[in-house]
Design a protein that fits this description.
single chain, mainly alpha, SAM-dependent_MTases_sf, PABS domain-containing protein
Length: 43
C-alpha cells in the first residue's frame, strides 16, 4: 500500500472516487466467491 500511496501523492490527483485503499480493495473477492474459486481449483 505504501508504494501506491507514494505514487498517488506524487501525481497530486484530485479524485472523487479513487484512493489507494480503493485500488487495493478492487483486487479482493468476497469470501463466498473466493471459496468457490478455490473449490474449482482443487477439483
Amino acid at each position: 500500500l505504501w508504494e501506491i500511496e507514494k505514487r498517488y501523492r506524487k501525481l497530486k490527483l484530485k479524485t472523487k472516487y479513487y484512493n489507494p485503499e480503493i485500488h487495493l480493495a478492487s483486487f479482493v473477492l468476497p469470501t463466498h466467491i473466493r471459496k468457490t474459486v478455490e473449490a474449482k481449483r482443487n477439483g
